[in-house]
Design brief:
Blueprint: E1 9-16, H1 24-32, E2 36-44, H2 55-68, E3 72-75, H3 81-90, E4 96-98, H4 100-111, H5 115-141, H6 158-189, E5 192-199, H7 205-212, E6 245-251, E7 254-260, H8 270-275, H9 277-284, E8 288-294, H10 299-314, E9 321-326, H11 333-342, E10 351-352, H12 361-371, E11 376-383, H13 386-398, E12 400-406, E13 409-416, H14 418-435
Parallel strand pairs: 1-2, 1-3, 3-4, 5-7, 5-8, 8-9, 9-10
Antiparallel strand pairs: 6-7, 11-13, 12-13
């Protein structure tokens, strides 16, 4: 008897060159996209140029799809356009073939809330589609089977349309990025240090953001920073955060803005990473990066993720990186020490925390304070005027004030970012000049 499933039912497939195929992540990704996985096919062999899998395994795949009534086949591999077409020809009519990256784009599309995130998803989708549009054009010239199994319908003008859309989206993203660059500059001029959370999806970045920022509400600076979010979702699912979420946190005497960004995921092609590079600008332009990893994973998994993360970050990042070993509540102390030692070359002097339980967060805050650019100390002597009170108030808002003495003159001592110290000196100079 043939099984019946919803139109969201899918069969997953994976090929590996050697060893045993691990389908845990592709199952998680499929579920994150809303698919009901009803079967899987795996194979260990070198890649077949025509079908990716061997022809016999493709036949087994087709039989599984027919038996389970699945409407989608999801490969945990990157498929070329012609491989997609050839596999589609072997499957029951109407079955969609997608590879790992098409699935990831589908998830991104479901989660994109902001205009920037939506544009980045659209850009990635167009970059994914362009070589497939070119393949369809080639197949059409050869008068191959209509329908372009797995590739979709052919439109003669589609290639040029895609190229124009890519150019238009790049222009709009550049405009958004310029606004964000201006906003980061304003934030630094307002006295904020910028800390970015980076790491793989599901490492617990959003939970850590909430933990670091729980003592302060963003409405304290609502007028200066209307884009700041008061919450960051914390869920055990992939790609909860697609755009960026920024909240205020108090770290020692500093005012810090912490930004959570889209999670990394392994084995992504350059065109996909490039499509989301403006999201990663929040990481690249930060004063400090917290690279969050899940300590409950195996040493090999963590090591691979650290290597990929460092490759991504070191390309353009200028800030120091502190590795945060998260989810310590899920492992014992002995395992934490063993993994800390095994990872010491990639993660020297990491901080181990549990964001979910709030364990060792104070030590992380101290480390953040230590790693951020040093504050400068300043002592200003100001004339006693009405305008001076405005300057004193401004320094209170943008720096850590230690003492203020009011007499014939106002003497204020404080610590602040170098840019704030420079601005305060300029304001003091204006006061002295005006009172002369």
């Amino acid at each position: 008897m043939t099984a019946t499933h919803t139109t969201d039912s899918a069969v997953v497939a994976k090929r590996v060159d050697s060893g045993e195929a691990d389908t845990t992540e592709i199952h998680d990704l499929a579920r994150a996209a809303g698919y009901d996985v009803v079967g899987e096919i795996t194979q260990t062999r070198t890649e077949d140029p025509a079908y990716h899998l061997g022809e016999g395994k493709v036949t087994r795949l087709a039989n599984t799809v027919a038996r389970e009534g699945a409407r989608t086949v999801i490969f945990d591999n990157q498929l070329g356009p012609y491989q997609t077409y050839n596999i589609g020809n072997e499957l029951p009519t109407g079955v969609t073939v997608m590879d790992r990256f098409r699935l990831i784009l589908e998830i991104f599309g479901q989660r994109a809330q902001t205009r920037k995130a939506q544009l980045q998803v659209e850009l990635a989708e167009l970059r994914y589609e362009l070589p497939r549009a070119e393949a369809k054009a080639s197949l059409a010239k050869r008068d191959e089977r209509p329908g372009f199994m797995g590739l979709g319908e052919y439109d003669e003008s589609r290639e040029e349309d895609i190229k124009k859309q890519i150019a238009n989206i790049r222009d709009e993203l550049e405009s958004i990025e310029e606004t964000e660059r201006h906003r980061r500059k304003q934030r630094r001029e307002s006295g904020f240090d910028l800390v970015a959370l980076a790491g793989y999806t599901n490492a617990g970045k959003s939970t850590l953001l909430r933990r670091l920022a729980e003592d302060l509400e963003v409405d304290q600076n609502e007028d200066l920073h209307p884009d700041l979010d008061t919450t960051a979702e914390s869920e055990d699912r992939l790609f909860t955060t697609l755009g960026t979420t920024t909240r205020r946190a108090a770290v020692g005497k500093r005012d810090v803005l912490v930004t959570d960004t889209v999670g990394f995921i392994g084995d992504l092609p350059h065109w996909l990473v490039e499509s989301f590079k403006s999201t990663l600008d929040s990481v690249y332009r930060a004063d400090l990066v917290l690279l969050v990893v899940d300590i409950s994973e195996s040493v090999q998994e963590i090591r691979e993720k650290l290597v990929t993360s460092h490759d991504t970050l070191y390309e353009r990042n200028e800030a120091p990186i502190v590795t945060v070993l998260n989810k310590t509540d899920t492992v014992d102390d002995e395992e934490i020490e063993r993994k800390r030692e095994a990872l010491s070359a990639l993660a020297p002097n990491p901080v181990a925390v549990s964001a979910a339980e709030g364990l060792n967060i104070e030590a992380l805050a101290e480390r953040i304070d230590l790693e951020l650019p040093d504050y400068e100390r300043e002592r200003l002597v100001l004339p006693m005027t009405d305008e001076t009170m405005s300057v004193v108030s401004w320094i209170h808002d943008h720096a850590h004030v230690e003492t203020v003495d009011y007499g014939d003159e106002v003497v204020i001592e404080f610590e602040a970012r170098p840019a704030i110290v420079e601005q305060s000196r300029s304001k003091a100079g204006d006061l002295v000049g005006a009172s002369a």
